[in-house]
Amino acid sequence: MVVDQLRESELDRLFQAFADPTRRDIVRRATVGEYTVSGLAALYAMSFAAVQKHVAVLERASLVTKEKRGREQIVRGNHEGLQKARRLLDEYEQIWRQRAARMADILAEG
Amino acid sequence: MVVDQLRESELDRLFQAFADPTRRDIVRRATVGEYTVSGLAALYAMSFAAVQKHVAVLERASLVTKEKRGREQIVRGNHEGLQKARRLLDEYEQIWRQRAARMADILAEG
DNA sequence: CTGATCTACAACCATTTGGTTGTACGTTAG
DNA sequence: CTAACGTACAACCAAATGGTTGTAGATCAG
User: Fold this and answer.
1) In what order do the strands lie in the sheet with B64-69?
2) Which CATH class is domain A5-109?
3) Alpha-carbon torsion B101, B104, B105, B106, what sign?
4) How far apart are CA A22 and CA A49, in angstroms?
5) What are phi and psi of B3, to 5 degrees?
6) Which of chain B's residues 9-68 bind strand D, using a 7 Å CB cutoff?
7) What is the mean pLDDT of chain A?
8) Where are the domains of chain B?
9) CA angle, corner A71, sides to A66 and A73, nearest 5?
10) Cβ pair B96:A82 closer than 8 A
11) Separation of CA B71 and C1' C14 in angstroms?
12) Who has greater pLDDT, B1 or A65?
């Protein structure tokens, strides 16, 4: 069927990005405020490079953006990725509602 | 901090489960109708065992349920997992709205 | 009863993931 | 200018992931 190959891998990256507690925390924080990469790194019990990788994963998933400011890199939440993830889950919710509606129909005519 | 360790790994499993196109497709189909494991397996260009594993991942994430019927196993969509995933993304959306509200406040008093 | 079917699960393999350390390079502070 | 800082990236490693084949136990059909 090959249903929208591009969107599929985009969704893979999105949900993969959400599937890690450190990354979810980074998204939260970077949405509330502004953080440098090392500012974020200071928050977790892992190396700077590990956090840097997490940020890179989030950036590829459009869940954060990075903006260079002098020698620092400012990390901010990016609404775009979140919206896309929510849109998919909304589709699934819609499928559930249609299913419920069909059940109701069957009961009504039965 | 150890914020709700249980829920965290539950969310890991949930989003990890969504991070694969075959699994997303299985959830869709199993929500619309009923499928046996081999009925699902027939739909994809991979082995029965591979599909079986995907179903197991979805089951652990509460995105589908399995019910034994004779020698068959009926796979159905499970609303529970979807709801939990949606609830998390709604939290994140809420954070965005709060952020937007704060921005508006700053502009208003400025 | 016997053979085909459906499922489960183990063992294996290649690739990806999530972490590490080390090196290099631009930028800022003193 | 020089030292410290912030970042990027490569190389490496262990564990997890996504796939395979093969074996075995239930259950159903003829």
Assistant:
1) B35-36, B72-77, B64-69
2) mainly alpha
3) positive
4) 14
5) -80, 100
6) 16, 19-20, 22, 46-50, 53-54, 57
7) 95
8) 5-109
9) 15
10) yes
11) 33
12) A65
